[in-house]
Every structure is written in structure tokens, then in C-alpha cells.
Amino acid sequence: MSVLDVSELSVGFASEQGILEVISDLSLSIAPGETLGLVGESGCGKSLTATAIMGLLPKPHGQILGGDIRLLGESLLTSTEAERRQHRGQDMAMVFQEPMTALNPVQPVGRQLAEIYQIHRPNWSTSQIQSRIVSNLKAVGIQDPESRLSAYPHELSGGMRQRIMIAMALSLEPKLLICDEPTTALDVTIQAQVLDLIRNLTREHGTAVLFITHDLGVIAELADRVCVMYGGQRCEERDVEALFRAPLHPYTQGLLDSIPRLDHSPRTRLQTIDGQVPQAGQFPAGCRFRQRCTRASAECEATPPFVDGVACFHPRETHHA
Ligand SMILES: Nc1ncnc2c1ncn2[C@@H]1O[C@H](COP(=O)(O)OP(=O)(O)OP(=O)(O)O)[C@@H](O)[C@H]1O
Ligand SMILES: [Mg+2]
User: Fold this and answer.
1) CA gap 220, 230 in Å, rounded
2) Per-domain residue ranges for the chain?
3) Is 163 helix (H, G, I), strand (E, B) or coil?
4) With contact defined as beta carbons under 8 Å apart, do 11 and 62 qualify?
5) 44: Cβ below 6 Å to ligand 1?
6) How many other CB atoms are found less than 10 A from the CB of residue 261?
7) How many angstroms is it from 182 CA to the middle of ligand 1?
8) CATH number corresponding to 4-91+174-233
9) What is the pLDDT of residues 24-66, one digit of tens each?
């Protein structure tokens, strides 16, 4: 069974002009131990997908408009807020780009780590909690963890804070870990260490990972499968090797072409493709990429179905230049 099943999910915001649909009919699933990379230009809906899964859409305007999100087979959309809170600690956890958004600035990190167990493991003794926290911090590569517990988040380096947030997310050994640009704010060496850490931990525990990033080098290193989003929709989703070897969707091809040489400079950041992503609500009918696409034809005024890993009427193989 998949850990996560998102099916035909649509998410939008209530505005004065009515409902603005930002994510449309997005489907994805992740098996135990599998890492799905989620990529796409800024604003395409990656973080919103993550917050919808976590049940953390901004209130009151953010809304699920359709579809379903199932965790271990159980719909999260019909669960109560209390059940969802329980899931959030226990079954799924999220690591954010900026750890300061997740850490409480006025509480020592040790206390924040302990709180998770006090809530979810009420029978555990203080010393039991303490020794688990110390071993968790060691697992994320923090040397001498005892000395860090009394530190406030601002007293720690960015890399250290990110490790603490990962330790926090993994406290209860969640089945699903969502990482939203977890290493973007870190320098390259620390970034590599944090990625290693996520890879090892997920391998050991069979955690399913949804990994959001702009960085195709990171995807190539970490993901088993890649889902490419454009304008709130899935345009391509395939095994990482197949996708890098022969991208089918013109947008995916554009993304890959925009980095110099993947094998030589795996950490190059993504360049953008000609033209801008239209604002949500201002997409053309049919294929949302068609105004920027060199292969667009009249056919593309209809919505391309998602078939064999790609939503395109003119995927690479069938294209006649
Ligand atoms: N609170 C909000 N109210 C209205 N619209 C929002 C809100 N949050 C996000 N959006 C819209 O949803 C779209 C998707 O945002 P999201 O944060 O998911 O993008 P992203 O793919 O994560 O981008 P980035 O790579 O920059 O992080 C954006 O275009 C934005 O206009
Ligand atoms: Mg984002």
C-alpha cells in the first residue's frame, strides 16, 4: 500500500473575485521507502501541495476544492482536526526551508524536542525522553547533543537548526516526511550533509519522502521519482533516471536544458524558461504551458490527459519538428 495517495486534488483561495484555483487535479502517490521529488518554477504550487497534505492550509481562505488525500489508506479530508493533529506528529511530519518558522524562538530546543514526546508519549518518563532526544540528535549528526539542549534557536547555526528541525520531524518516526526546500538556505557542504542524513534515515526506517526543491541536482541525487508541476498541475511524473535521460514534456525539457551540464555541475540552480508563469486564475484554457511552448498546436487548447507519465499532446517521442 502507498503511504501517501493524493488523487485529483484541487486547492484554491477564496478572494473577493471568488475562488481562485491554484492547484488543479493533482495526483501523486509515494510508496514506503520511496522519495518523490516535486519540482517546478516558483509559484507553481509546490508548497501549497505540502501544506494541503499536512492539513495546514492558510485559514480561512485556503480551501480544498476537490479530490482526496489519503495517508496509509485513510482519507485526511474527512478526519477531525484532533485526528489530523495526531497524524501530524505521529504519521507525517514536515521540514521547512527556514527552520525559524518551525522552531519557537523563545524556548530552548531541548524543551521543544521534549514537548513532542510529552504530547504523544505521555507515559514516558523524563529520563526516557531525554535519552531518546540525545540519541535522535546524534542520529542527525549533532556532536555532544547534551550541550545543545539548553540553547535557543538563534544561538545555533543555520545548519544546526536545520538538523534540529529534522530530528524534531523524525521524533516519532513518521511514515511520511515532507521536505520543502530544506537545504536551500544552507551552504553547499552543510546541504550535502543534510541530504545524506535524510537519505540514510529514510533508508533505515522505510520512510516515504516528498521532497520539494528548485534544485535539479538535489533531485538527481535523492529522488526515485520526479513529479514536475507547472501552473498547479502535474505535467510529467516518471522515474528519475528516465526523466533526466529523456524528458517527455516540453516544460521538463526546458528545465533540464536550462542547466549547463547536469553531470558536471549537479548543484546549479534552475534557470527560468522564456516567458513568465501566468498568475493563478489567468492560465489559458487547455494546456497551461502552451503559450510558452514551442510545440503548441490547436490541439493544445484542450486539456491534455495524463498518460504514460506525461500530460502533453506532443511529448518528445511523437513530436515531428
Ligand atoms: N495565502 C495565500 N493567498 C492567496 N494565494 C496564495 C496564498 N499562498 C499561496 N498562494 C498562491 O498559490 C500559488 C502557489 O504558491 P506556492 O507557495 O505553493 O508556490 P511554490 O511552488 O511553493 O513556489 P516557491 O518555489 O516560490 O516556493 C502562488 O502563485 C500564490 O499566488
Ligand atoms: Mg514553496
Assistant:
1) 19
2) 4-91+174-233
3) helix
4) yes
5) yes
6) 8
7) 17
8) 3.40.50.300
9) 999 999 999 999 999 998 889 999 999 999 999 998 899 999 9
